[in-house]
Design a protein that fits this description.
Length: 408
């Protein structure tokens, strides 16, 4: 039975949105009128206009992405109901009705419609590639083929929750430095634009050359007042142009290579990306996905372009007969501990367990690196802010110290 996304008006004129299932659009409109709602628009979920008629297609452009936390929660609920032995279409409908998120509800209703039409769950998820990434669909397909879909969904829920937790730790660790930077910029601008001009008026009538530091500060203050808005506009335009330029493969590759050479940033970038790859490879291998497909999917979660290219090359080596540990070692991006665990798993036949241990080790290392990096960054930024303020104060006080000499 197809599902329809509707927009209707209630008796008070308020807009109501939701999803209803019905044999036809006419049937859904009738049900809406019975509920004292006036239909405004009605669209079959998964239907996409094209040509002279209507054809099935993805909802990526209309549905949009959902938050990782919402997807993890929905996956956990699906895993619980699947373990209870309910049919797929029943637990999809139950989770869709239970969720308060409209996007999740629409997506799950659309997936349920595809399943009831005879598609497999993995094929139904493929109609929403912007919501369910490759790792999600490949893992579900492996679970369906092996008959252990409930266990696979639980692993997916664990994976999504861990990944969301790691993102949160990175974001929370960056909040304090960002706030400190913004405060430093605001204080510096306030001193240069408003405070300095008022103070230097004291020396306006003195017919003697001011110290170099004071003259430089006055010049910066005048430039900030006269050309500050122009400079801000240039910076905004330059930032937009730079962002568009970095969307190209060549410039983005060069930037990613540069980031891998920076002292404090490079270890953190390598750690985050290797942790993502290790966890993805672990969950896919544990779910029964072939290793080559698991490595290709794992490469897609790596954000750094040179590292992703190195994993693609390692996948080619594995396809030619090389071991996974040896192939990853040649990239020189993965830590020796991870490579050693993978090699040990290959030789002992316990690759899945060793991949899980490697993923946990990498995630703990990333957390430690984040703590160390933020611990170093915070005092450095405080020192930089103090240095700027000290420079401004000295530029103002130096003429006062030499006031007798300037007057005479």
């Amino acid at each position: 039975m197809p599902a329809f996304e509707y927009e209707a008006l209630d008796a008070s004129g308020r807009t109501r949105k939701g999803v209803l299932e019905g044999d036809t659009a006419r049937n859904v409109r009738t049900r809406l009128r019975e509920d004292r709602l006036t239909p405004v628009s009605l669209r079959e979920i998964g239907a996409q206009s094209g040509g002279a008629g209507t054809r099935r297609g993805t909802l990526e452009s209309r549905t949009g992405a959902v938050s990782p936390l919402d997807l993890a929660l929905a996956t956990r609920q699906m895993a619980t109901l699947a373990r209870a032995g309910l049919p797929v279409e029943e637990w999809l409908g139950a989770v869709a009705r239970q969720t308060e998120k409209r996007k999740i509800r629409n997506v799950l209703t659309g997936v349920r419609t595809r399943v009831m039409e005879g598609h497999s769950l993995a094929q139904a998820l493929g109609q929403f590639p912007n919501v369910f990434p490759d790792i999600y669909r490949n893992t579900v397909a492996a679970g369906e083929s092996s008959g252990h879909l409930d266990g696979v969904l639980e692993r997916l829920a664990d994976y999504l929750e861990r990944r969301h937790a790691l993102r949160q730790k990175v974001a929370l660790a960056m909040i304090y430095p960002i706030i400190l930077t913004l405060v430093a910029i605001a204080v510096t601008l306030a001193l240069v634009v408003y405070v300095v001009p008022e103070v230097v008026q004291v020396f306006a009538g003195i017919d003697q050359q001011l110290p170099v530091l004071t003259r430089a500060l006055i010049a910066i203050s005048d430039a900030a007042r006269d050309y500050g808005l122009i400079a801000l506009g240039v910076l905004v335009a330059g930032g937009i142009l730079l962002a568009r330029w970095l969307r190209r493969p060549g410039p983005r590759m060069r930037l990613d290579r540069l980031l891998l050479r920076l002292p404090l940033i490079a270890p953190l970038i390598r750690g985050i990306n290797t942790a993502r790859f290790a966890r993805t490879l672990s969950i896919l291998a544990a779910s029964g996905v072939p290793l080559l497909e698991a490595m290709r999917t794992g490469a897609s979660v790596i954000g750094n372009r040179p590292m992703r290219a190195a994993v693609d090359e390692a996948t080619r080596r594995v396809q030619e007969g090389s071991g996974i540990g040896q192939a990853l070692e040649t990239t020189r991006y993965f830590p020796p501990t991870m490579v050693l665990l993978i090699r040990s798993g290959e030789s002992s036949g316990s690759l899945t367990d060793m991949l899980d241990r490697a993923a946990e080790a990498q995630e703990r290392e990333v957390e430690a690196r984040i703590g160390v990096s933020m611990g170093l960054m915070e005092p450095l930024m405080i020192l930089a802010m103090g240095g700027i303020v000290l420079t401004i104060v000295l530029a103002i006080l130096l003429p006062i110290f030499d006031l007798n000499q300037l007057v005479n």
